[in-house]
Amino acid sequence: MSETIAFKPETLEQVNKIIARYPEGRQKSALIPVLHVAQKEFGGWLDVPVMDYVAQVLNITPIEVYEVATFYTMFNMKPVGKYVLEVCRTGPCMVRGSEKILDHIRTTLNIKDGETTADGLFTLKPAECLGACGYAPMLQLGKFYHENLTIEKVDEILELCRQGQVDLG
């Protein structure tokens, strides 16, 4: 028996407020914020039934949802760990050592890009420009940036995560 996908009543109220921000007939404009809400509500990722449900809520076609959800890296198309480490790998961060940071995380956590640790705690997600070039290398963890990274700073962040002491915002 398949589980019915539906927002909790309080979440649906929040979604309806988001939709109401846009003119009638322009509910598709609410897609990105509604996808954020859906991802948070349904386990941190967007599977096809969740995206289909979002399409239904917004009265748009499922393909319109898939196109957006698969384009933006902030949406997860498969289950992820509690802590998603998004390490910037564009020019300024690469020049300042982001590849060493990525290699260290890969080795320390024994995972490859896009993988999640066996304990479900960490997912490594290399990212394109996160817009903090002056503070390279950097990573995003939840809503927060960790800048001017060193191997030591990364180890400290990982340990704080293991201890459950990291605020994801």
The portion of residues forming beta strands comes to 5-15%
- Arithmetic mean pLDDT: 94
Oligomerization state of this entry? single chain
Proper CATH architecture of the largest domain:
3-Layer(aba) Sandwich
- Poorly predicted ranges (pLDDT <50, ≥5 residues)? none
Give the helices and strands, then pairings:
Layout: H1 9-20, H2 31-41, H3 48-58, H4 62-71, E1 83-88, H5 91-95, H6 98-109, E2 122-127, E3 139-141, E4 144-146, H7 151-162
Parallel strand pairs: 1-2
Antiparallel strand pairs: 1-3, 3-4
Helix pairs in contact: 1-2, 2-3, 3-4
Describe it for me?
- The protein has a four-stranded mixed beta sheet, covered by helices on one side.
- The protein has 169 residues and is of the alpha+beta class.
- The chain has helices spanning 9-20, 31-41, 48-58, 62-71, 91-95, 98-109, 151-162, and strands at residues 83-88, 122-127, 139-141, 144-146.
- It has two domains: 9-71, Orthogonal Bundle (Arc Repressor Mutant, subunit A); 83-163, Glutaredoxin.
- A hairpin with a 2-residue loop joins strand 3 (139-141) and strand 4.
